[in-house]
Amino acid sequence: MTSHWLGVVCRDHVRRGVRLGIAQLGHGKRTGLARLAPGDHLVYYSPRTSLRDGAPLQAFTALGTVADAEIWQADEGDFHPWRRRIDYLPDVIETPIRSVRLDLTAHPGWGVQLRRGLVQLTGADFARVHDAMRAA
């Protein structure tokens, strides 16, 4: 059964991941990636444009499907993040979260759950985000 996930990552990091065809969650931790299964859908929500000093964004920034079961550790000098391959959809439209009516955001304080960095979405919420990001 396919699951739908929302990863919380700044837009700069999302764009780099899309260029590389990879997902990285939780500042490179393995735990979140291990929850994903091949064929699962991943949508990125970016609260800011960049990690530390970025401007507020609050938008969905990428959409894709987990390509396979492999999780590997990259070597970036002093940083060794865990990664997975993602087949990203091309030509998605960056979409403000407030422009999509979601079960996720229907209750006060909804943003607190995003602090976990990875949240499972309902199929209905994923479909709404997918449709908004793919609108012509």
Characterise this structure.
The protein is of the alpha+beta class and 136 residues long. It has three helices and seven strands; from the N terminus they run E-H-E-H-E-E-E-E-E-H. The protein has helices at residues 11-20, 30-35, 123-134; strands at 4-8, 22-23, 41-48, 56-73, 82-88, 95-96, 118-121. Strands 1, 2, 3, 4, 5, 6 and 7 form a seven-stranded mixed beta sheet that branches. The chain is globular, with a radius of gyration of 14 Å.
Itemize the secondary structure elements and their pairings.
Blueprint (H helix, E strand, L loop, with lengths): L3 E5 L2 H10 L1 E2 L6 H6 L5 E8 L7 E18 L8 E7 L6 E2 L21 E4 L1 H12 L2
Parallel strand pairs: 1-3
Antiparallel strand pairs: 1-7, 2-5, 3-4, 4-5, 4-6
How many β-strand stretches? Answer: 7
N to C succession of SSEs? EHEHEEEEEH
DSSP summary: helix tally:
3
Kindly, what is the distance between the CA atoms of the first and last residues, rounded to a whole number of angstroms? Answer: 29 Å
Q: Specify the structural class.
A: alpha+beta
Largest sheet: 7 strands, mixed
Mean pLDDT across the residues is 95
**Residues in helix, %:** 10-25%
Shape: globular
Show unreliable segments: none
Task: Give the C-alpha Rg.
Answer: 14 Å
Q: Hey, roughly how much beta strand do the residues contain?
A: 25-35%
